[in-house]
Amino acid sequence: MESTAPHTLALTVAYRGAAFSGFARQPDQLTVQGELEHALATVLHRPAETTCAGRTDAGVHARGQVVSFDVTASELDELDARDVNRERFASFRRSLNAITHEDISVRAVSQKEAGFSARFDATAREYRYFLAVDEVPPQFTRDFTWHVGHLDADAMRRASRCLIGEQDFKSFCRASSAVDKPTCRNLMEVEFEQTELCGENLLVVRVVGSSFLHSMVRTIVGTLVEVGRARRPEQWVAEALAACDRTAAGECAPAQGLVFWEVRYDG
Amino acid sequence: MESTAPHTLALTVAYRGAAFSGFARQPDQLTVQGELEHALATVLHRPAETTCAGRTDAGVHARGQVVSFDVTASELDELDARDVNRERFASFRRSLNAITHEDISVRAVSQKEAGFSARFDATAREYRYFLAVDEVPPQFTRDFTWHVGHLDADAMRRASRCLIGEQDFKSFCRASSAVDKPTCRNLMEVEFEQTELCGENLLVVRVVGSSFLHSMVRTIVGTLVEVGRARRPEQWVAEALAACDRTAAGECAPAQGLVFWEVRYDG
Fold first, then answer.
1. Which of A100, A189, B68, B131 could make an S-S bridge to A208, C-beta 3.0–4.6 Å?
2. CATH class name, domain B124-265
3. What is the largest CA-CA distance in chain A?
């Protein structure tokens, strides 16, 4: 009987979002979850169901998405038998990378406590949004940025302060997702970093929260960019938040600038 | 008469190499030079000939390629008239970027001394080669790296020292290009930097020289990678150099990892 007791594994996954209809499995669509579950099913010789830390939208990238799934004790033994005297799960990881779409990389495999959930055990999620701030269009960073040109980063930083804390973010949630659902969230950090890559200047917006509403990070960024472009005053962000109405905030920033950066778990 | 006296302008140009059959103009091929000269001809309403600091091969990228060309005094007056009270050449630059292929960005336009040559006045050229050194394939840096997995960077650094200075680099020059031509060059720096981008570990090889032979940077990198993979001993690089024979050195590293980084001019 012991050989069928469940154990839980987690994958750390990076992907380029452009090729996929988002993370979540959908019939007849190329999705990250569909690719991962197909690869797991191929290696484990049985259907596999996964849970992810955050269901990213179509076009959104990930550096550190976390995906959990259960294996039986005998499956775990079999996986371990492949890597005697080597890094644990190295050949399992290599098999998954060989099967999945080339825009997905399983970066790490680890064993968690039985029953671990990539979604429910997460205590914080970090997203980074990359803004290309030169007048000239970016080349090297093009696939992972939104090209907006010059921004007043200081104004954006000041305007963002009102967003920190536990608040109702209904104004920053896709309207169709906010119907009859709680829209309070705890936003822990919004930080700005200017950096340069291959001669291209970027403003990176780092957003950390316990969890996020649908399109929340991108709507925060789209709203702050309006301030950075001086199309709206700084206090407009606080007014948009207080309105609890999606039409009060700015546009949702394009998916291609957003990277699901990292998930934090206690302990 | 004064209105036809020649003045010299220079463009600083970035491009992604994958789409082009190299920098140099060729009939019926998409090339960076062809695109730039077409854009200049469109804006200046006459054929334009350009000189570049380095003719990069098909697939090689550039961050700071420099391209020079002459304009008449009246053409210069006309370009200046477009940007009264603004950054000089801003609308000229914008026009060029609107006409050229999207994988080319004219980053800057500047006036040089009359007769300046992007090629002959260059005192040093810097290339950077990006090696992806994780076992897992890179995603974010994929288009600009060669994925080689783990390398012994210290061994590569030690092995590279023999290359510094004025020497005959015939072993590191494409054989067909070395026939009856001088193959001595002054290599000023070969440096290694470990860096991380979106969770992907890179080893960046920075190569600076007065000028380079055909495929020289890529052959140096391909040779050093053999040492980094422990397929060859460190002293093999010095032996390859001394042999003055292309077959004595390693393979030419793939074009996609190479970026023509910067050109230096005295004064």
1. A189
2. alpha beta
3. 66
